Amino acid sequence: MSKRDYYDVLGVGKSSDKDEIKKAYRKMAMKYHPDRNPDNQEAEAKFKEASEAAEVLLDEQKRSRYDQFGHAGVDGQTGSGFSDFSDLGDIFGDIFGDFFGGGSRRGRSGRSRGRPGEDMQMTLNVSFTEAAFGVEKKISINRFVSCDACHGTGGRNGSQPTTCDMCGGAGEIRRQQGFFTVATTCPKCQGSGTMISDPCHKCRGEGRVRGKSDLAIKVPAGIDSGQRLKLSGEGGSGSLGGPSGDLYVLVEIDEHEFFDREGFDVRCTVPVSFSQAALGAELEVPTLTGRVSLKIPPGTQSGKKMRLKSKGIQKLGGYGYGDQIIGIHVETPTKLTSEQREIFESLGRLDNKSSHPMAKGFFEKVKNLFQ
Q1: What is the pLDDT of residues 331-359, one digit of tens each?
Q2: Which fold has domain 6-103?
Q3: What residue spans define the domains of the chain?
């Protein structure tokens, strides 16, 4: 069976540069890699075909001979495997980075023996005012902590681990597969490269145990419900000296008796009587920092919004404050004394449309509607 044209295999043109060829090969390698297509002979064949094409087209001398003589110019010079190249990083390192975890030549010295701890998340409830001004909260969490008996080594009486005899400390087993070498995690040491020959009696060689920890969390002023705080390194302790995970704190804010929140603004509703709304009044209203005096102008309508500048919530990061928005609610009395009823009846007789502009406009529109 004749070989396909290498340019057609990779789907590139004859004028394509190395970067374009690498990009095309990477796409095919990621799609047909045998690790992603186990027991798929068709995918393996396509991967080998693409690898052979890339091997030629990424080598200037081989590509030149191929362009001049076709497959005859490079027969016998392909398929020798990536290990024959003196510098994989220049040609194939970036392509296979994803398969080898960022590089196939990390070496034993770059391997971390320990495994990282798990990230954790918890919910923290704070009051409305605590969220507005910030607060420090003390919490207790149950998490993995470093074993105090072995000081995190996993060995009894602090004894050190020994090199894994299966992988020789590399943490991985390598095997040749077609055109490349596949590295898999060592099944004996689980990738650590070491073994605990005399495990600690308390942590059983893990280097960590579950325990209760007390933490102080600083909740910043201006935080809102649903936002998260990240405490780096305060999650579960890593095993055998590995780095600790992170703790994520989800903040939930309790409801307030008077206030609602909209961004950094605070909203509340203030009830006023008919007479206060009609004649005007001066009232004391609540704010987050105490009571302040508010002037209600004569003729104030129910639903009117009044703004108190910078009486809201501190903006996250400390750059100013929001406002307090006060909604006016004119209350209708539900029970009247005989004296009040008499006064309201007299007021009703004195009412005229000019003193009720909204009512005047409304009833005129209704009249016109049914004419």
Answers
A1: 988 888 999 888 888 887 877 655 666 65
A2: Helix Hairpins (1.10.287)
A3: 6-103, 260-366
